[in-house]
Amino acid sequence: MSKKNNTAGILAGLLAGAAAGVILGMLYAPEEGKETRKKIKDKANDLKDQAKNKYGEVSEKVKDQYSSISSTFKETANNVAHTVKDGYDKYKDQIVSKTADVVKNVESELNDLK
């Protein structure tokens, strides 16, 4: 999650820096105020569109990675559950078998004592 926040912060910083640089460059250019304002507005719209596109790309990558990680986690959890269940069943059968043997031995010993 912090990597996502860092990426978003870096992206926002780069866009803000680019916007500030463009605005300052236009303000110091020797043009009419009306023309400068139009250029600033156009550039701001371009930057807004670029930011939307980048956000969409980053958002899709995050969704894909979440989906992949989620699937891997579910699969791993499922495998662990099956392994535990198989181990439980194996040892349960061994314990039942050994218990039956002990019961037979005890019954045999009791019969020998009679």
From TrEMBL:
Pfam families: YtxH. Keywords: Membrane, Transmembrane, Transmembrane helix. It comes from the Bacteria. The chain crosses the membrane at residues 6-29. InterPro entries: Desiccation-related_membrane (IPR052928), YtxH (IPR024623). This is Gas vesicle protein. It comes from Chryseobacterium taichungense.
